[in-house]
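Following up on my earlier thread - several people asked me to post the actual chain instead of describing it. Fair enough. Here it is, all 133 residues.
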Amino acid sequence: MAHWRTLRKRHWREAVTTAGLTHAARGAHNGRMTEMPQAGVIPEWTLGWRMQRALAHAEISVEAIAGELGVSRSSVSRWLNDRGAPPRAAYLKLWALRTGVPYEWLTGPDFRRGFRTAPFLTLVTCAAPVFAA
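Reply from S.P.:
Thanks for posting it. Predicted structure:
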């Protein structure tokens, strides 16, 4: 049987390493490091994410931008969380002007006529091979 001091140290060490975890997470915590995510995976930067970064950069509150655009706070919240229909181009232009970020950055490379489109591959083919004489 282990000595009582050893047991007390082990219990104290477990309490310190799991102090900030929820009850469910304490049960799953095994004291080891977690695995790193796959290298080379780039998260998608959505329109809502860019709008959030622009607001943070300009230090403008959601209530203030909603008032300036003349829309409800819940509409701005939906835009920032990428829910529902995206904002119209006119709102995005005002958003870019007010926050001081370029409109092209705000809309991103995949923004077309108010809708975000998924990137796609374009096939390039030649009619006939060209050979130098």
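Residues 47-111 form a domain with the 434 Repressor (Amino-terminal Domain) fold (CATH 1.10.260.40). That should answer part of your original question.
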